[in-house]
Amino acid sequence: MPATRKTDFDVVIVGAGPAGLFAAHHFCEHSTLRVLVIDKGKGPLKRRCRINDYCECFKCKPCDILSGIGGAGLFPTAN
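-> structure tokens emitted (79 positions)
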């Protein structure tokens, strides 16, 4: 049955880390299911850890290193 509203989804994936993104990709490539991916973190260009500026962790909520699309693997490593 086709979705009747923009808010109708067959699958909701919570978390846009590697596993969530792979699951969404798999559903989209191998089915006609409508998929929604949600994540509590910021987008890739807005993620910035302040520890490099102040030499201490501010315990940001949500943490820019651990939250956001791509998960912790997307965050650049410090030099």
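Residues 51 and 69 are 20 Å apart (CA to CA).
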